[in-house]
Each structure stands twice: as C-alpha cells, then as structure tokens.
Amino acid sequence: MDFDVVIIGGGLVGASLAAALKPSGLSVALVEGQAMPTSASVAGWDSRIYAVTPGNAAFLSACGAWQHLDMSRVQAVEQMRVFGDDESELDFSAYQIGAPELTFILENRLLLQALWQELRVQDNLTLLNPARCASLRWQEDAALLQLEDGREIRAKLIVGADGRDSWVRQQAGISASPTPYQQHGVVANFSIEKNHRGTAFQWFQPEGILALLPLPGQMVSMVWSVSPEQSAALLALPHDELCAQVAAASQHTLGELKLVTPPAAFPLRVLNLPHITAPRLALVGDAAHNVHPLAGQGVNLGFRDARELAQVLIQRGAQSDCGATHLLRRYERARREDILSMQLTTDALKHLFVNHDPLLRTLRNLGLAFTNRFTPLKKLLARHALN
User: Fold this and answer.
1) Is the pLDDT confidence value at 34 over 70?
2) Which residues pair with 185 in a beta bridge?
C-alpha cells in the first residue's frame, strides 16, 4: 500500500488532521489500534472532558465534524471566575470582549465519534482500524511502516499522533525527557445544586488547582491537580465524602454535589522537544508536547498543530513530495512560538500558585487582583484564549 500521508493515531488530533486533509489532493491513511466510538456507544457521560476554543470549533466545523455533534451535550462557557487563596479574584466575560462564548465544554467520546463519522465517508482516506504497528523504517524518499498483520505501507510522510508516550517518536529516535510535575489530575463529573450559568470556576490553592467546568444542565466536570498522595486519598474516598471535599474546596459555590461518573486520575508532566519534525516525519498533539491542564489548552494546542500542518500541505504549491524537508520546517517554525508560550505560561502558573512561600502568595494574589482591575490586559488575555 502506497500513500502520500500516513497518520498513526486516530484520537482527536490525528482524526482532525485526517479530516482537514480532505481537500489536499493527497492520499491519506489513518492507522488506529483501538475501536472507535459509534453513535450507539456514546450513551452516558464521559469523564474525559475538553474545553475547545471558538477558533478550534471553527476548524472542526470546516472539517465537517462539529455539525455531527449532539449540541444538547455541548456547553458554551460565557464567563470564567478564577480565585486566589485569599479574597483575590479574576473574572473573564465573553460579553466584555464582544464574543458569544469563551470556549465550549464537551466530551472526548462525543467529539471523537463525530470526527470518525466524517472520516468513514472521506474519499481520499483509507482507515486501517483496528490495526497495530510493528516497525517503522526510514528511507530517503519514503518511510516504510510494517503492521502486525504483515501488511507494509509506504508513505512520503508519517505523522505521529499517537499520544504522550508516542511509539512513532521512539521509532524516529527523537529523545524525550518529560519533567514530572509530581501531581496527578483527578477527574470526575458531578450534578450540582445551584445553576452554573455557563461559568467555569478555578481555585488556585497551595495544595493544588481545582477547576469546575460547566456541562449541560445541572452538571460540572472537575479537574483537580493535586499531589500523588492526595490523588490516591481522593480516589479511595466513599463517593459522598469525595463530593463533600470537592464542595468544601470550591467554597460551596455550586451547593451540594452528587457524583455522576467515578473519579479517575492521571500523572501530569511537561514535555518540550527540541524538534517536532524529522526527515519524513511530523509530530502533532501530545506526541509533540505536553502541558499542565490548568489552562485547558492541551487538546487546543494539538488542534492548532493539525490546522497548521494541514494548511502547509494543502498550500504546498507545485511540490509533489508532501514529505519535503522545507514543508516540514515551515510547519515546525509556525508552531514553535505557540507551543513554547503555552508551556512557559502554564509551568509558571503551576509553580507560582502551588507554593507555600508567603512572599509568592502575596505576589500571586496581588497579580490576580491587578489583572482583574486592568481591563485592557484582561481583554487581551481573553481574546488570546479564543484562538
């Protein structure tokens, strides 16, 4: 089998890239080892929740996926309230910047099903699913991918979209040394007593960072970044006690909570690679970078990778080789600033707020209060988050 582009990894970022390449004139294959969700398999709430920016919602709409979503399970965020560990507060409003919403909150499984619904009818795309990779070899004019079932695929360009522990990255010899944050992200969904009114809440505390993201109806999704020890303790709690702890940590802002999906946890880390391309290879999404989830920008960075790489390949001009070095360099240059700035920002905020130093405590709370009063800066930050 011979293709122009082979994407390894059919999660949100890999699937969105495949969909974005529909008008490219390239032959594309998507290799994914796991069964993908169908409309019959998305009943019940998914504990993996993402915030998708308006810019990426437009990208997904251009890919044809956004239109397949059940919008009754998508929540627009109109306001965000951020609290320090004293009386300081920072609030963002879509109304203040003339936007209809700041972001959209939706389930991983729901969006993945919508993307694959579009991929299954895409003319220039071959879906290899389920299919597992066995080996990957590089030649000057192509890459050769061997599948476990014996099939061999030849591609001018391999795209690694296979997540934070990327097999493709390892096969390419790109060394990765992620830095653990010594924190776990604890996630769960809750029903709430009080209406969230389309507001996302975040509390910066010395022990961790708690976010409650609005879901449709009287529900929220929690991401609580805490130490591994606290994570284990939270997961071990009876459900009623977990609800009580989350309610107390959120200052009872949304009243009493009831658990809807069981809690789960995952380790947090930052990964900054010196290069996200190599000869006949491009990395996207978590295969290319990891960031702290406190800003909800991990998947958005990945979608922007897919947007940029698709644009570079579609606008390649007379270049018949989609794996040409100058095209890959163009993609890497275009993504460098966005990735680095998000990593630096989230890393700095994590170290600033998860810290018991009394001087830093004073400074961080003064910073929140100052930003909240300085309207031009606040608007600038809010507009930047829309991309």
Assistant:
1) yes
2) 225, 266
Report the domain count for the chain: 2
Quick one: 195 and 264 in the same domain? yes
| Residues 216 and 70: beta-carbon distance below 8 Å | no
Alpha-carbon distance 18 to 284, whole Å?
A: 12
Average pLDDT of the chain, as a whole number: 92
Backbone angles phi, psi at 364, to 5 degrees: -65, -35
Domain that holds residue 248: 76-103+182-268+355-384
- Identify whether residues 223 and 264 lie together within a single domain: yes
Domain match, 193 and 339 both = no
Instruction: Judge whether 151 and 159 are in contact, CB under 8 Å.
Output: no
Judged on CB neighbours under 10 Å (0-12, 13-18, 19+), 349 is middle
Q: What is the pLDDT of residues 271-317, one digit of tens each?
A: 999 999 999 999 999 999 999 898 788 999 999 999 999 999 999 99
195: which 2 tokens? Answer: 């209406």
Residue 40 CA: distances (Å) to CA of 257, 293, 336:
29, 30, 39
